[in-house]
Amino acid sequence: MSTNKNLTDLKLVELRELCEEYGLPTSGSKSELLERIMESKPEPRREDMHNEHRGSKTSEDKLLHLFSSVLDKLAGSRDSQCGGSLPSSITPPVFCGDVLEFPVWWEEFDTLVHSNSKVSTFYKYRYLRQSLQGRALNCLDSFSPLAEAYPDAIAYLKSRYGQTRTLIRNFVREIIELKPMSSAEPKVLKDFLDLVSGRLYTLKGIMSKVEDPFDLLMATILEFKLPPELKQLWEKELICQEIEFPSTESYKKWLSKEIVARDAAFPIARSSKDRLKGISSKQSSSCTTFTYSVCSFCNASNHSLKECPRFMSENPHTRWEFAKKLKLCFKCLESFHPQSKCHNKCEIGGCSKSHNTLLHFEPAKGRSYSQGESRVSSSRVNVQLDQRSPSQGPSKISSIMPSALIDLVDARGHRSQVRVVFDTMSKRCHQSPDGTLECLWVWGE
Hints:
Shape: rod-shaped
Order of helices and strands: HHHHHHHHHHHHHHHEEEEE
Largest sheet: 5 strands, antiparallel
Helix content: 40-55%
Pfam family, one: SAP
Structural class: alpha+beta
Strand content: 5-15%
Number of strands: 5
Region (Disordered): 379-398
Radius of gyration: 50 Å
Strand order of the largest sheet: 3-2-1-5-4
Distance between the termini: 159 Å
Protein name: SAP domain-containing protein
Domain SAP: 7-41
InterPro entries: DUF1759, SAP_dom, SAP_dom_sf
């Protein structure tokens, strides 16, 4: 009897500890403590306790057996709440941060760990951190390592990788951007079928939560047609309006508002054809208003580049380099228009190239002239450049080609002053350093 009494007292101490753990009063007799435990926890029912100790002989034996049954059942209930770790043969799945792999990973992790009542919160949080690798490795660095942070860590992980809208967008993008099969080999076909089947199965499961899957699919495809700037604005619109699944109607309404806002902020841009028409009209009007434009070679305002004596005195190579430097049209030596729109051709006989005559290279020396061609001789005469005719005063006139007054001396010594016109299409027109001009005189046989 004394042994049973000691065991009963020991069980009573354990009962008092259980009462303290469950927040029950610890004062009272053994029977009162037992009744409180039985009333506070539904697991050890009173009928079960009495059925288990009916075979006991004495009251002490009955009470000891009843105490033991209550303690065993309460301990089992407490162990199921606290839980432990997984068996060593089971390893939690690994997640590397790929959004497309998150649904499969979470389904397996939820079954093995998250929803497993036999695994304690401490081990759940530990398994969660161990399963994260790659890009997802550092996403929980800011969370506390204590087990109480596990619910917040799960919620953050789901918001980061498990948003339904993000999953649908990534699955649709991957299917659209699938590369064509490289060959018709069985292995290539099997790999392609496995990939597509898995993606479509997961996408179908996600889309089952949507009322109109087709409309959501079309809205997702239309998102890919937006530039990066508008994609960000569209995502902000969905977040601000708390739209979980976008529709084509919401997409069109938002895009209409963006068009109105941008029309108010930016002027309507003209097409390239309209700009070219404006440039050509300006050029034609400037040509009718002014006889000459500013020469880009000598900066003179009384002649153009094609009429510039200094430019014409340069060799063709120098003229080419100057035209390239200023990005001029090689056909007309003008700017502000594309070269493809210019149809000028070289006027030198025998040259079929489409360049300006001033950019034409002379034929190699030693070329023989055929019968009937003119012979060329040269003589030097003094040149006095002037843009006015002898009969006119200092008033400015418009001329088609530049001219000059020269002193002409014949073989008998007779001197006369004449005005000559410089042909801008001439192949040779060289001014010597001493101020004389080498002119070409052509006569027939």
